[in-house]
Amino acid sequence: MINRRKFLSGSALASMGLLLSPSLKAETLRKLHFHGIGNNEQTPLVVSTWQHGLAANYAAWKILKKGGSSLDAVEQGVRISEADPKVSSVGYGGNPDRDGNVTLDACIMNKDGDCGSVAFLQNIKHPISVARLVMEKTPHVMLSGKGALQFAIENGFKKEDLLTEKARVRWEKWKIKSKYEPVINIENHDTIGMLAIDNYGDVAGACTTSGLAYKMHGRVGDSPIIGAGMYVDNEVGGAVATGVGELVMKTLGTFLIVELMRNGKTPQQACEEAIKRIADKQKDYKKF
User: Is position 103 annotated as part of the catalytic site?
Assistant: First the structure.
């Protein structure tokens, strides 16, 4: 996982790329370790964004070590962050919009390029699992708002109040000024994005968030957008993004990273090129 502060220095986007070489498909993964979790020379791999992703990684890792699929791993992994009230940028306990509503976005993608997403979903703790059902049970890629909520309830999800007391207090404090400014910093966009490779060399990705704190009601960022918040290609690798979603969407950041890797860039080079393109298009980039 890329060092948070170093990678964000001078940028509004943190992106993580995972590159597959031909040998990875032939022999799974050789000599790749994730912070000491995997000790074998041949092992699956899971990576995610931010500090709260470590607990999510552990949940995903347990699935991978038992021979589970990368798709199951990323879904179950990010559910940990979705359910954690201490994480103020994802799921239950996430910061609300400026009207006090917690609205969630998520997407998931498998080795075959199948994908599902939900946007502007309220009162459902695990949007990533709803997104997976969109992928597996509908002919669509994305459901949003009331339609996504109806679909979730029809498939057994329980409506819950996602605004915790701590999140409500933060919102009440913000309302004193009540000025909407999507501040570009490293503390206001801790979306969790996760990529995994299983024992078969197959890749999957997931991304889930409550979005920018105190956003305008109805705002949807990059996280549920395939090719912006997350993208995987089983022949190349994958990428996830976290940052100011509006900037990521303008460049289709994760699709761009995967295509750059397809054309020979390393993950680091591809991520840096994506950030450079964002910077080049932003006249006020120095504010970042």
Answer: no
Domains assigned to the chain:
4-282 (3.60.20.30)
Reduced 3-state DSSP string for the chain: CCCHHHHHCCCCEEEEEEECCHHHHHHCCECCCCCCCCCCCECCEEEECCCCHHHHHHHHHHHHHCCCCHHHHHHHHHHHHHHCCCCCCCCCCCCCCCCCCCEEEEEEECCCCCEEEEEEEECCCCHHHHHHHHHHHCCCCEEEHHHHHHHHHHCCCCCCCCCCHHHHHHHHHHHCCCCCCCCCCCCCCCCEEEEEECCCCCEEEEEEECCCCCCCCCCCCCCCCECCCEEEECCCEEEEEEECHHHHHHHCHHHHHHHHHHCCCCHHHHHHHHHHHHHHHCCCHHHC
User: Could you tell me the pTM of the whole model?
Assistant: 0.84
pLDDT tens for residues 20-79? 544 333 333 333 333 333 344 445 999 998 777 789 999 999 999 999 999 999 999 999
Active-site residue identified among 28, 49, 103, 191:
191
